[in-house]
Amino acid sequence: MFGLNTKDTKSLFIVAFLVVVAPFILNPFPAASAMAQFNAGYPDLMQKFVIFGIFAIGFNILFGLTGYLSFGHAAFLGIGSYSCVWMFKLLGYNVIPGIVLSVIISGIFALAIGFVSLRRSGIYFSILTLAFAQMSFALAYSVLSNPKFNLTNGETGLQVYANDPQWFHRDSLPDLPHLFGLSMRATHKLEIGAWEFQLNAGYYLCALMMLVCFYLAIRIFRSPFGLMLRAVKSNQQRMNYTGLNTRPYTLAAFVISGMYAGLAGGLLSAVDPLAGAERMQWTASGEVVLMTILGGAGTLIGPVLGAGFIKYFENIFSKINDHVLHSWFAFLPDGLEDFVVFLIHPFIGKGWHLTLGILFMLVVIFLPGGLVEGGQRLGKWLHRRKAKDTPSAKTEPAE
Amino acid sequence: MDAFLLQILNGLDKGSAYALIALGLTLIFGTLGVVNFAHGALFMIGAFCAVTLQRLLNLSFETIDPSQKDFLGNPLKVKTPYIESWFGPDLGGAIIDWSVPLAILFAIPIMIAIGFVMERGLIKHFYKRPHADQILVTFGLAIVLQEVVKYFYGANPIQTPAPDALNGIANLGAIIGMDIVYPVWRIVYFCFSVLIIAAIFAFLQFTTFGMVVRAGMADRETVGLLGINIDRRFTIMFGIAAAVAGLAGVMYTPINPPNYHMGMDFLVLSFVVVVVGGMGSLPGAVLAGFLLGVLESFASTTWATTTLPGINQIIIYVVAIVVLLTRPRGLMGLKGVMED
Amino acid sequence: MSILEVKNVGKRFGGLQALSKVNLSVKENTVHAIIGPNGAGKSTLLNCLVGKLMPDSGSVMFDGQSVLGRAPYEINQMGISRVFQTPEIFGDLTVLENMMIPCFAKRDGAFTLNALPGVQKQKDILQKAEQMLEEMRMSDKRHMHAAALSRGDKRRLEIGMCLSQDPRLLLLDEPTAGMARADTNNTIDLLKEISDQRDITIAIIEHDMHVVFSLANRITVLAQGTPLVEDDPENIRGNPKVREAYLGETA
Fold this sequence. Notes:
- The complex is a heterotrimer.
- By secondary structure, chain B is mainly alpha-helical.
- Chain B is 68% helix and 7% strand.
- Chain B has a single domain, classed as ABC transporter involved in vitamin B12 uptake, BtuC, CATH 1.10.3470.
- Chain B is built from 13 helices and four strands.
- In chain B, the strands form two sheets. A two-stranded antiparallel ribbon of chain B has the order 1-2.
- Chain C has two domains: 1-79 and 168-251, Rossmann fold; 93-166, no CATH class.
- Chain C is globular and about 55 Å long.
- Chain C is of the alpha/beta class.
- In chain C, the strands form two sheets. In chain C, strands 6-7-8-3-9-10 form a six-stranded mixed sheet, with helices on both faces. A four-stranded antiparallel sheet of chain C has the order 2-1-4-5, covered by helices on one side.
- The two termini of chain C are 36 Å apart.
- Chain B: Belongs to the binding-protein-dependent transport system permease family. LivHM subfamily.
- Chain B: Keywords: Amino-acid transport, Cell membrane, Membrane, Transmembrane, Transmembrane helix, Transport.
């Protein structure tokens, strides 16, 4: 269906289903219970899941297929965010122009940056993209926010002010990002027994976008273009001597993934109309690399999993504090309790980045194929155990 | 003219730091074929070696001086560093005052040890893995190292003053009849880096060890075939590169109070320096380091920043892009070295 | 009618004159071997023909057009395919995918942004690739990863990939280097079959005299960067100059 084979159609439907019911399955604990802090089904976090899912899907088109490791993709995320807020400032709060512009502008930037960076490959390419991203960050943070020419509003971040033109804004429209009048913050609260579920307009818009992106990514993966990109990763020499010009292929992949990042940035602004330069920093670029690797670079579903995994744990880890830890380990003798809390303390709360770094290393060292490969290995192992168990079960009675 | 020379001088200290880090990066790169994203973290750890030594030297015990009262009328508590009580206030005070230069001695064994552990424990397993994996694992390590430092030392910059004797400013211009006032410590830093760079080059040029390493940089396989244990030498080179980065960090502390993310800030620029200088070229790394440092200093003048606001923030990147477009191998890059 | 004309080509690397005044004319539908001792400049010459190196002087004409200054992919699109000394294939892809890529290059040119229709929908390409695999007797391995193939199969696959583009000229760089005797003979048979059945010119650089004399109907001997003689195999065998420069060395 949709020009996909059965297996891909199935994974598309699974993802679509999960995304639609996410507000329910991510809130498995009753709202008043102690476990409610592990719920992830509130709009802010769910929006992040799907937006960073888009970011990672796009990054994977470049890194997963061609093997070119960009360390500066956050620049496009930031450019997308700024573009979208500018549309809010000039035209009004409807999200459509903002999202469209963010994709276009980030595509143009990706074309320029890719044109230069792709003259080199391997390490050089990674360093070049990193340098470009840092340059964009410096531009956004200070250079382009001077009184003469204020494009980014520097440290404060770009936002809509009362004296902005907003040409198409009418009083009947919400004073926040909206889709033809439907506010992105509109949330329908559903209370079923002790549970509370939140259905948020912004989330469903982002989720729809992510499904479209996911679908397009599948098409790209299965297309002749995707095959060429995988060939670039495998053997550039053979590509060249087979009459194929590798550079436009890699550039096209770079621009496409830059546009995905721009879309993600635009959506970030659409759900929260404030664009700051910190979105472009190298840590943000590193994060999307980690999401992709953690999920499984080069696989379709991996980046989405990786994005969800990291954003979920970022959220949970940042929320846990010593107080919570003490309540968990209260069953231990006092001294031991304090000791355990002391051991875990550096990794939680503000220590999330430490956990992230360690996670990063562990994944690269032990599981370069990411969660998808881990799942496959686990599946094989279980399968083998099952296969082993069956004959032994047969021989037992004979003994 | 005076202002011109002053800008050059101003660029030299930052340039020295770039050159030292870029030199270490190139050494690791050329010998082990590994891109070390954790190299900036080594620079940062070096800086925190200085902080640690300063804190160790300032460990104090309290005594109560009944003859004096504090503002609440209680007997005054006087803190005396152990060092002062052991060596007397004069020598002890001097040791505390000179903690940054002393930290060099303190940092060398620590940095070499960290380098060895890093190479043997982690990097070694990544020689045969793709470059992307090397970048990623060292990137992860860099995050871990800086978060650990942040955990123990906090997020704020820590003042680590230079010895009083070297803390002032000197009129350098007096020698040549001009008026150029310049902080003494920056001159010290520049001389120190020139010394280290010279030592590294001499070491590579005139010792057998260095000769083998250079041969290994040029053609690892052939040297391996000669029956020379190149791996062990490369481990030692990694230790040396770590020590160079660490010393650069130690001596930089009085110029810029260290914080946990200084490593990454310098690393990105040092990578750009390596790219501009030419991948795999040691003289290129040094030359480009100083060149870009000076250029950045010129871009920071009031004239430059009023003409083109923010030019000082992006000048290095702009230069890197221009160099790469016109000379893809960098200023002194060799053909065939790290082509991809 | 000669399809490849090399005239007065010279190439210098620093102090080393790798090639000087190389003249070579490869006739259409022949198997032309270029032989010579180590360091005679065979590989340098080959690299000048495919766009990897730019000669300092001289001209290289393929079918009346100059190839100099063109990128390797452009030269391939003109109709020259190259087989490497160690097989260059797409190790991460399956054998069938390997075979499809040159077919795409032939059909769509050096670059086409064909990002939405599935590969499986490209019936003409699939058919062509399957047919070529059949011809190479590799159909049973179509879903294997190319990296897992044996050395001999990798070589077959690479030759098949080149042939699927229907090149006018096939360049082979020591195609049997490092092969066992049986694999070498298989490769000789394969190449013979190709030259007999197809409208193709083959230029081959080779060290192994057995291969050269089993295949070639024209031989150029290169020594110290210059062609020594160009003649039919029978005459090369008895030529005292060649014996001195080349065969004498191995005897």
